[in-house]
Amino acid sequence: MILDLFAGPGGWSRALTVLGVRDVGLEWDEWACKTRAAAGQLTLRTDVAMYPTWPWIGRTMGVIASPPCQAWSMAGKRLGLVDQPLVHQAVEDLAAGRDTRERLLAACRDQRSLLAAEPMRYLHALNTAGQPEWIVMEEVPDVLPLWKQYAVILRRWGFSVWCGILNAADYGVPQTRKRAILLASRIRTAQPPAPTHAHVHEPESLFGPGRVRWVSMAEALGWGATDRPVPTVCAGGGPGGGPEPFPSGSRKTLSDARDRGTWEPRHQDTVRQSPRDSAGQAPRHGIREDPASTTPAARSTTEAHRWSWSLRNNSQANSTVRSIDEPAGTLFFGHRANECTWAAQPLNSPMRDAESSTSPEPIRITAREAGLLQTFPADYPWAGNKGQQFSQIGNAVPPRLAAHLLAPHLNIPLNPDDFTLAA
What is the total count of domains within the chain? Predict the structure, then answer.
């Protein structure tokens, strides 16, 4: 078996499905478990910290672990950094077969901090049977010192180990998501997969096969130059499942601009226009359109307003803002789920007038769009209300990155075309 600790909504499992393999996920969150069930993934709903290790001994080929990152993430209070000495102590004790978790947990500022030590409890038990064959772990960059401690222990047990920081954008994910990765193997030299993408296109040369340019949000979302889509407008459904209050006038601004047929991309920046009925009327405001039925407006105007769309990660002054022709910044949600917005800026145009200087109001990103930027398929069955869906998406490992990390251990070739994004 492949054991997936803290399996979440299925980032690792989705990658394994594409590779033709299955895992067994341990996950506590109710809605992540429902998402996994809808996606056809094997799951035990349980607390990883409480589940016994003996059922896995003698039958586990690989171990995957992505402990919850909230205690360490820059999006939170980062009390995991304060608790780090306690987590290091827990890892050292568990590696020696000493369970001191209860005492150490009582001293932690954030009880989630100690979850990063839980994989060692499983690894110590499995090592008694000469297992697993390989290990892959992922966390936010600040956990790298802990992975280095794991590496020292695993090398003593006969593993080849590599750990470091990888950027998901270097592997075709439309997001510059940096993560601390640990790779370990008993049968091969552990090393990171060769990057396939780069910030700037690198042609093939005598020194290597070359790399294509990072995947942009426009490419991932299918905002191509032919259909010229706009950010999705949806009606209702705030982070708790209730009404979603749009900024004042935003629906009217969007529909008016769509009716005029005045959206214009910059480079790969594109926006989606509303389809019209047989009478040429735009749909009612706030109705979410089927992306597959979206078509360019049949007319244009000499008073064209031109906008450049960007994704703003939150409402803070220092938030990451990326143009649609770039990868997204690291997506994180939770209480900030609806602060991740598409924002428009007017482009320089000789036809600018007083009316064209007014940009549309920001539009909140949808769960479908966020999932695509994490390289989940467009129809992935996210369960729960909007807040629960966004939380799952932000915490998940991008399946495309996961597949690059897993394929060498499974000796299975990875076909990047299997990870189609927009659909």
Answer: 1
The range of the structural domain enclosing residue 109 comes to: 2-213+397-418
Question: The domain that contains 52 carries what CATH number?
Answer: 3.40.50.150
Residues 6+ apart with CB under 8 A from 383: 31, 32, 34, 35, 38, 389
- The residue whose two tokens read 């209860």 is 102
Q: Is residue 235 domain-resident? A: no
Contact yes or no for 185/405 (Cβ under 8 A): no
pLDDT tens string 34-75: 999 999 999 999 999 999 999 999 999 999 999 986 555 555
| Residues in the chain, pLDDT under 50 | 225-228, 234-305, 337, 349-355
Q: Strand 24-27 and strand 42-45: pairing?
A: parallel
CA angle 275, 270, 339 (to 5 degrees): 95
In 10 A of CB 55, how many CB atoms? Answer: 13
Q: Which residues pair with 24 in a beta bridge?
A: 3, 42
Q: Is residue 132 part of a domain?
A: yes
**Residue 4, strand partner residues:** 25, 64
| Rounded CA separation 400/175 (Å) | 11
**Alpha helices per DSSP H over 164-249:** 217-221
Look up residue 199 and give its two tokens. Answer: 């910030």
Residues 6+ apart with CB under 8 A from 419: 18, 172, 375, 399, 400, 403
Helix-strand-coil percent breakdown of the chain, rounded to 5?
35, 15, 50
Q: pTM higher than 0.70, yes or no?
A: yes
Residue 121 inside a domain? The answer is yes
Kindly provide the residue ranges of all beta strands, DSSP E only, lying in 46-188, ordered along the sequence: 62-65, 134-139, 160-167, 178-185
Q: Are 331 and 394 in contact, with CB atoms under 8 Å apart?
A: yes
Alpha-carbon torsion 311, 381, 181, 49, what sign? Answer: positive
Q: Using one digit for the tens of pLDDT, what is the confidence trace for 191-237?
A: 999 999 999 988 877 767 789 999 999 999 988 644 445 565 544 44
Q: What CA–CA distance (Å, rounded) separates 275 from 348?
A: 27
